[in-house]
Amino acid sequence: DTTICLDNCVYLEGPPNMVTYVWYEDGVVISSSQSIEPCPIDTTQYSLLVIDQNNISARDTIQINVLPKPIVNLGSPDTTIILGESIELFGAQDAIMWEWYKGTILFSNNPNILDWPTDTIQYKEIATNIYGCTAEDSIMVNVHSFTFDLGPNDTICPGICDSIIGPPDMAFYE
Q1: Confidence band of 168 (pLDDT split at 50, 70, 90)
Q2: What is the 3-state secondary structure (H, E, C) of 49-92?
């Protein structure tokens, strides 16, 4: 028997120089080649029947146990914040170890992070569960600075009006 993490594969190979190879997955024929590389999503039993040039047959069976990966989901592929705002990201709840990266730099080993990025950056979480299985996800955080200029200072006399024009296409003016 062998154990793998979900989304991993295992290479299985029969003996060389056989006349016939018959691979079974949970009793169903899946291949007639010498080797297979299955990626089961659940614990699965594989058997190999071989026949040599003297018509002698042999059979062996292996069970592949599949362990779950942590569930890592940082949300939509990207998000946008305004310069000065924070971003809070929550790590996998079923993990025991977390690695948070800002770009390629290891940033934190905490389950959750709170940060105030000053430039657009990608955050990536790699989480490890009690079985040693890992999963990762990333999110791009776009940071926009928002500034505008109302023009030069102006001096006016009492009772005289002047126009001040704000930036166009705003959802709200105050």
Answers
A1: confident
A2: EEECCCCCEEEEEEEEEEECCCCCCCCCCEEEEECCCCEEEECC
